[in-house]
Amino acid sequence: MKKNINRREFLKFASTLPLAYYASRVATRKLLETGKKKNILMVVFDAWSSFNLPVYGYPRNTTPALNALADRAIVYHNHISESNYTTPGVASLLTSTHTWTHRAFHLGTPANSTISNNIFNAFGNQYHRFAYSHNPQAVRILLKFDKDLDLLIPMDELYLVDDWISRIFKNDYDVAGLSTNVTYIQNVDHNSLFYADIFDKFILQKREEKYKALTEQFPFGIPSRGKSNYFLLEDGIDWLIDNLSNQPTPYLGYFHFLPPHAKYTTRREFAHIFENDSYSPQIKPVHLFNEQKSDAELAEQRMRYDEYILYVDSEFQRLFTYLNQSGALENTWVILTSDHGEMFERGIRGHSNETLFEPVVRVPLLIFEPGNNTRQDIYQRTSSLDLLPTLLHLSDQEIPQWSQGEILPPYGETKPNPQRSFYTIYARDNSQNKPIEKATIALYQGSYKLITYFGYEKISPNEMMYELYDLENDPDELVDLYPSNPTFTKSMTEELLEKIEEINQPYS
Amino acid sequence: MNNKISLKDLLQLLLIISFPIHVWSIIQIFNNFEWIANRTHFSDALGYCAYALMFSLLDSIITSLPASLIYMPLIYSQGKNKARTILMSAYFISTSWFIYYKINMTKSQDREFVWNFIREFGGTYNLRLRYELGLFFLFALFIILTIILPVILIIKFEKAEKIVQNLFERIELLAYVFIFFDLIGVVTVIIRNL
C-alpha cells in the first residue's frame, strides 16, 4: 500500500541525513583501517645506483644501516629504471608506462592524454594520497597528477630557502620555472637581461651568509639543488616522522629526496671516510659519448658520491627506526628505490648522458613487507614499471589496462616470463608529438643487452650504432659482442627495430 | 630652454631603454620556443613568451630609474634633447656589448667566466696571467672607446646628434609595439596563474 509522506515526516527524515552521511564516512574509514588495506610509503632517493651499494656487492661499505635492514626486506638485484634521468624515470615509475607512451622527455611532463594514468588515480580516493619531491623535474610531473593527490607538499616547504617561483607562480610552476630563475636548467638562460644575474649573486651571497653555520656540518657545502637552493635531508625525514601518524589511513605516500644526486655534499661525520681506502675502481674504456672526465677525476667523484650515500643511509635508518618503534611497519609497505642511477666510468660522470650502461639504469629496490622479518633475494630482472601493478595487486585493487608492467616476484600468481623483453631509453631531445628520432634504447633479453644509438651527430644522423653485452658473463659491460655478430644478434636487432617502428608509428 | 622632465620624457626614456632588453628577450624566445613547444605543447611555449615579455617590462622599468637619475643632471649641462641622445647612445652601445657577452656566456661551459676572472685577478695575479690580462685590458679599453667616441661625436657635431635622434625616434615607435606585447604577456601570466 502506498503511503504519502507528509511535510513533517519529510523534515524529520531530512534532519537525519547529515548524521547518516557522517556515520557512513566514519564507518567506511574504520572499515578501511581495520581491513586488508595497508599503508604504502614509497621513498625514492634520486640518482642512486645499485652499483654503489654493498647489498648488491659493492666493496665499499656505503650503507651499513641498509645492510642490516635488508635482512627484513625483499631485495631486487636486477631492477632497472626506465631511463637514466629523472623526468622519464619518475614518469614511468608513477605511471607504469614506457617513455614512448607517457612521452615525458626533457624537463617535460606526461602528455595530457595520459595524465589520468597514474598511481594516485589507480589507487583511488579510498587511499589518502600525498607526495613530495625535492626535485623540480619530479614536481612538474606530480603537479600534473595534482587532481589525483590529496596532498602535494610544496617543494620549498622542505628547503631551507624560499623558492619564490613556486610560491608566486604556484599554479603555473612548470612554465614559470623554465622562464625565470633557471640557472639549474642548462638549456635555458635567464630571460632577464640585467637583473637575473645580479639577483642570483645577491641571493647567493645572502644565503651563504645566513647558512654559514651549516657549513661546519657540511664541509663540501650545504646540500643544494643548483647553486644555493639549500636543503637538509634531515628536514625531509623529520617531516615524515612528525606527520606520518597524522595522515588518514590507509595512505599512499610518495617521497622523492634529492640525495645522493650531485653535488655530493655529505655530512661532516662521513666526509673523507673512504679516502685512502683499499678500493680501486675498475678502469673501463672511454666511450664515444664520454664527457672527457679523467679516471682520477672520476675516482674522486665516486668517493664523494659514496660518502654522500652514507648520509642517505643514516637518514633512512632514522626513518626506519621511527617506523619500527611506532609500530607503523606492521601495517605499512615501505618501498625503497631510485629514479635512475649514476656512473663514474668511461669518461662519464653522473647521468643523463647518451649511454645506458648498467650503473646508470640499475637501481636499488627493497620492499619492506608489513610484519616481515626475513630476507628474500630476487635475481630475475624487474622494471620500475612493475611497482604500480604490484602495489595495486598487494592492495587488492584492480590493475588498470594501461599499465605496461608486471607483478613483481614473488607476488605474482605465475612465474615471471623468462622471455620478457625489458627496455630502457634515453630520448631527451625529442618532441612529445613527433616520432622519436634521436635516442639510445637498450633491449634486455635473458642475459643479453642490446643497445642502439641513433640520430646523433657523432654517429652520422642516418646510421644506427649497436653494442651487445652478455651481462651474465660480462657484468661490467667490457666486451662488446656486436662486432663478432653472434647468431641471436639478428633476432634481437630485428625486435628492437620493430619496436622503434611500432612506437613511432602513431606519430609518423 | 625648458629643463623640467615631463612624463612624456620619462616615457621616451623607458621606450628606448626597453628596446635592447626586448632584443635579448626575442633572442631567448627564438632559442627556446621550439624545444619548449616540443617538450609539452604549443600553449606552454606561448606561456614561456609571456613570462619573457613580462620580465622584459620589469627590467625596462627598473633600468629606467637609475637612467632618469643620470638624465636629470645631464639636462642642465647639455639640454634635454642632447642629454637624452648622449645617455641613450652610451646605454645602447654598452647594452649591445652586454648582450654579446651574454650570448657568448650562454654558449660557453664556463658561465661564471667574468666573475672568476675578476676573482682570480684580485687573488692570484702572477706572471703567467700577464699576457691574458694585457689582452683583457686592451679589449676593455676598446669597449670603453666604442662607448665614449659616439658620445663625443654627438656633443661636438650637430649632424651626428640629428642622425642618432632620428634613429631613436624610429626605435621609440617599435618599442611601443614591444610594450603592447608586454602587457599582453602580463595578462597571459595572470590568466595562467589563476
Q: Helix and strand layout, with pairings?
A:
The complex is a heterodimer of chains A (about 500) and B (about 190).
Chain A: H1 7-34, E1 39-45, H2 64-69, E2 74-80, H3 86-95, H4 99-102, H5 119-123, E3 128-133, H6 136-144, E4 151-152, H7 164-168, H8 173-179, H9 195-210, E5 224-225, E6 229-230, H10 233-243, E7 251-257, H11 295-325, E8 332-337, E9 343-345, E10 348-350, H12 358-361, E11 365-368, E12 376-383, H13 387-394, E13 422-426, E14 439-445, E15 448-454, E16 464-470, H14 489-504
Parallel strand pairs in A: 1-7, 1-8, 2-12, 3-4, 3-7
Antiparallel strand pairs in A: 2-11, 5-6, 8-11, 9-10, 13-14, 14-15, 15-16
Helix pairs in contact in A: 10-11
Chain B: H1 7-39, H2 42-78, H3 80-107, H4 113-123, H5 130-156, H6 158-192
Helix pairs in contact in B: 1-2, 1-3, 1-6, 2-3, 2-6, 3-5, 3-6, 5-6
Structure overview:
The complex is a heterodimer of chains A (508) and B (194). Helices cover 31% and strands 16% of the residues of chain A. Chain A contains 14 helices and 16 strands. Chain A has helices spanning 7-34, 64-69, 86-95, 99-102, 119-123, 136-144, 164-168, 173-179, 195-210, 233-243, 295-325, 358-361, 387-394, 489-504, and strands spanning 39-45, 74-80, 128-133, 151-152, 224-225, 229-230, 251-257, 332-337, 343-345, 348-350, 365-368, 376-383, 422-426, 439-445, 448-454, 464-470. In chain A, strands 4-3-7-1-8-11-2-12 form an eight-stranded mixed sheet, with helices on one face. A four-stranded antiparallel sheet of chain A has the order 13-14-15-16, with helices on one face. In chain A, strand 9 and strand 10 (348-350) form a beta hairpin. The termini of chain A are far apart. With 194 residues, chain B is mainly α. Chain B has six helices and no strands. Chain B has helices spanning 7-39, 42-78, 80-107, 113-123, 130-156, 158-192. In chain B, helix 5 packs across helix 6 (158-192). The longest helix of chain B is centred in the N-terminal third of the chain and has 37 residues, at 42-78. The interface between A and B is large, with 36 and 36 residues.
